[in-house]
Amino acid sequence: MLFELLPNGEYPGEVGRIEFSYRDPVSEQMVFQEVDISSPLGPWEVPNEGYFSGPSVEKGFVMLNIFVAFRMAAQRASVGDDPSALSTLRALAQAVEGWLDTHADEDITDDLFYVYLFIDNLEARGSTSLSPNPLPPPEPWPAD
Fold first, then answer.
1. DSSP readout, the chain?
2. Cα-based distances in Å from 63 to 69, 114, 117, 143
3. What is the pLDDT of residues 22-60, one digit of tens each?
């Protein structure tokens, strides 16, 4: 699970508390957990590159963004809006390339390969960046 959380006070520190439960798939026992969430950042102090509690969380966020953008592009292409699908994928590819400039990661590099295959398929169908009136890439997190 990924959660985007922001500090809720005037100063760095407490963000909140998450309480959740799940059934352990092996023992079938219910597991209850409570986690206090804190941040070294105060409200509105989030750096442009974001703040992640660790490298695996950051990679998970990148993977989620790839999935969401790929799905958006597929939905647009499935209804014949190839120009919008193409603009979404090109924006995604640029963002992923930028992340890979500072993070060597074989999984994300492989994901980018498939983004480029999708771009190639759209271009093979005749779509170009010069297509008339493509929609701008959608905002995947409109609540932010």
1. --------SSSSEEEEEEEEEEE-TTT--EEEEEEEEEESS-TT---TT---SSHHHHHHHHHHHHHHHHHHHHHHHHTT-HHHHHHHHHHHHHHHHHHHHH---HHHHHHHHHHHHHHHHHHHTT--TTSSSPPPPP-S-TT-
2. 10, 13, 17, 19
3. 999 999 999 999 988 877 877 777 777 777 878 888 999
